[in-house]
Amino acid sequence: MAQILAPSSQWQMRIARNSAPASPMTAKMWSSLVLKQNKKGTAKSSAKFRVFAVKSENGTINRMEDLLNLDLTPYTDSFIAEYIWIGGSGIDLRSKSRTISKPIEHPSELPKWNYDGSSTGQAPGEDSEVILYPQAIFKDPFRGGNNILVMCDTYTPQGEPIPTNKRHRAAEIFSNKKVVDEVPWFGIEQEYTLLQTNVKWPLGWPVGGYPGPQGPYYCAAGADKSFGRDISDAHYKACLYAGVNVSGTNGEVMPGQWEYQVGPSVGIDAGDHIWISRYILERITEQAGVVLSLDPKPIEGDWNGAGCHTNYSTKTMREEGGYEVIKKAILNLSLRHKEHISAYGEGNERRLTGKHETASIDTFSWGVANRGCSIRVGRETEKQGKGYLEDRRPASNMDPYVVTGPTG
């Protein structure tokens, strides 16, 4: 039977709306037909006549399932590489597939490719070619087998990074010897909101209405408190399969909102892993018929926004005496507050209000165990005299290459 990734109630609603015109047969009617065919002797083997099992009266029969799950490895050495890149908005993900005919061990062994930049807002129509440079490889959890996902960045035909290519500059910074020697660790907490497809209203919320006030939903269980767990779990496992350094997940304060954590990741890996994890989440919500939102304040009013808190430490911070290094780093961050805010995501002013576990966008602050500050230091870091800091300002739609690299 096909696995259903969407919450049960919503999936049943989709089937009721969409499947009836295409296939008026019920499960009982189909079973009856199969029995009659078998009695007549027209289906002597499953190879000649196959029917997929259905789960309920509203079930659908998917004859493409076998083709989608074909294992190519016994028949060919070729595999499929899904080239992924960031589009012109700086937050949209694009991808396309190509066949690779020989085994590869490093991204540099993959061919460069091109795409129509005029269709993504990244090049003019009269000179639209943008070149994809493969940079990081992950296993493909959707196709399985030897197939891969490839994180790429983008260049002109002359080899210059295009303006939306933020990875190039971040990679330069992380390859600097001083930076390499400090082994910078990042732990990024990606929050997101799941929306109902047609109304763009959070999953589990009554259409045009509101659930009960915040409080019962954070890390909760139960049909009246947790909405979208199947999507979160499917994403968690798919990321682990792909090789994304995901370290956990939980339901968030606003119903229909979730979080997952990536890290600790070193240097440029932090950005690569966040972008691939976002792509995987987009694909899973696509299959589930749910809309993924990275808007930092998807619902106005007395509801939590969505951030991308970024935890950071260096080798010196993690060693004895590191707390003093952390405090110096916080001072340096305070001197560039406005510059950082401008690079921490679109619409962040709607989220950083000083309420709902945020600091005001206009004021820099820090504190120990204080979630209402710009920078939070954990109790354990204070106690041990070493550890890490948490920058709570980045929005859920921030570019991790920018936050960890040029302005990080």
UniProtKB/TrEMBL annotation:
It is found in: Plastid, Chloroplast. It is an enzyme of class 6 (ligase). Its main location: plastid. It catalyses: L-glutamate + NH4(+) + ATP = L-glutamine + ADP + phosphate + H(+). GO terms for biological process: glutamine biosynthetic process. Residues 384-394 have a biased composition (Basic and acidic residues). This is Glutamine synthetase. It comes from Salix viminalis.
